[in-house]
Amino acid sequence: MLAGIRTRDLHKIYTSPPPLASGGGFGFGPARVKGNKQPKPKIVALDGLSLEILPGEIFGLLGPNGAGKSTTAGILTTRVRPTAGQAWIGDLDVWKEQVAVKRLIGVVAQRPNLDFALTAREILLFHGAYFGIDSHQRAQRADALLDRFKLRDRADQMVRGFSGGMMQRLSIARAMMHDPQVLFLDEPSAGLDPQTRLLLWEIIREYNQSGKTILLTTHNMEEADALCQRVAIIDHGRNIALGTPAELKASVPGGYLLRLRFGRHSPELLQRLQTLPGVTEVRANADAQTDNSADVYADRGGPLISEIANLASSANVELCDVHISEPSLENLFLHHTGRSLRE
User: Fold this and answer.
1) What is the pTM assigned to this prediction?
2) Cα separations (Å) of 120 from 56, 96, 223?
3) Distance (Å, rounded) from C-alpha 281 to C-alpha 257?
4) How far apart are the C-alpha atoms of 242 and 50, rounded to whole Å?
5) What phi, psi does 74 have (nearest 5°)?
6) Which is it for strands 213-218 and 182-186: parallel, antiparallel or unpaired?
7) Could you give the C-alpha distances from 9 to 14, 47, 64, 323, 343, in angstroms and in order?
8) In what order do the strands lie in the sheet containing 213-218?
9) Which one, out of 26, 71, 161, 269, has a CA that is 20 to 30 A from the CA of 10?
10) Could you report the average pLDDT of every consecutive run of 10 residues in the chain (343 residues)?
């Protein structure tokens, strides 16, 4: 059975502060004073999000912290109840058929949540048992996954001594143990060394080639570009861009982004920059009075610098710094929201 993912008009409003992932635990801020009748806060995490992810597709969900990525994944994996809207895995309504949905999905959290009292092999075997896989097949699958994730030599050691990269590999192996039709990966390569990251990308592609649907959330634009057939960029719980990486990069006005910093603010200079051949848009920093920077979108990068420098010189404005970015998903996000994906 090939299973896709659909959401329709998802809304999620939190009426208590979201948990703070700090200090290894969760906190909720200062406790309320008894008898204090302050109104409950309303935090809009999702604001009518609709997506359709095709069966057998690697789909990327991109956005800054607080954009709604984790809430979306939480709803689709039955951990978060939506305020309104619907979600489906295949033909199954996520909140009406939770048990059946859980059999179809595998989930890898951003932080490993392994049982430190078990060995790597035991973690895989126990996970397979939860899903009713017989002992012979469990052993075969566990051996195959330990080999594929290059963990065979540590298979019978307690995971408390594993490195972060090894724990992440084991977490993904565990999620694949029951051969789910849909795999959810939350920041799968965060904090990994380049060699481990490339191994994970290779394994993700292989799993997808067997017809499996994969949804990954990421801040890593290189990862999204390399792995995803389509991506959605969301912010403030809304979808602001959707398409293939190539389509989205091509939609950036001019393609190139030149981030300029000047010695002082000059509206006249920004107006003159707009007249340069190939420049499609010039944006001053939102706080231009204290931050003398501007973004220039253009169809070329390096060749434009000398013309910008000449204009600045003729306006008696010092050009202090130039940073050029080729067409990228991050530039698209900057164009739509004016801030970086990493903020």
Assistant:
1) 0.78
2) 29, 34, 27
3) 10
4) 11
5) -65, -40
6) parallel
7) 16, 8, 21, 39, 26
8) 105-108, 182-186, 213-218, 58-62, 230-235, 238-243
9) 26
10) 89 75 38 57 90 96 86 93 96 95 92 90 96 96 96 94 91 96 90 88 94 90 90 91 87 80 87 90 70 84 89 90 81 67 48
Contact criterion met (CB below 8 Å) for 253 and 219: no
**Residues sharing a CB contact under 8 Å with residue 59, sequence separation 6 or more, in sequence order:** 5, 53, 213, 214, 215, 216, 228, 229, 230, 231, 232
Q: Which two tokens stand for residue 306?
A: 């000398």
**Secondary structure (3-state) at 64:** coil
- Token pair recorded at residue 66: 């607080």
Please name the residue that has the structure tokens 């190539």: 246
Q: Which amino acid is at 190?
A: A
pLDDT, tens digit (0-9, with 9 covering 90-100), for 238-289 = 998 899 988 887 777 667 888 899 988 788 899 999 999 989 888 887 554 5
Alpha carbon distance, N-terminus to C-terminus of the chain: 39
Do residues 110 and 187 make contact, with C-beta atoms less than 8 angstroms apart? yes
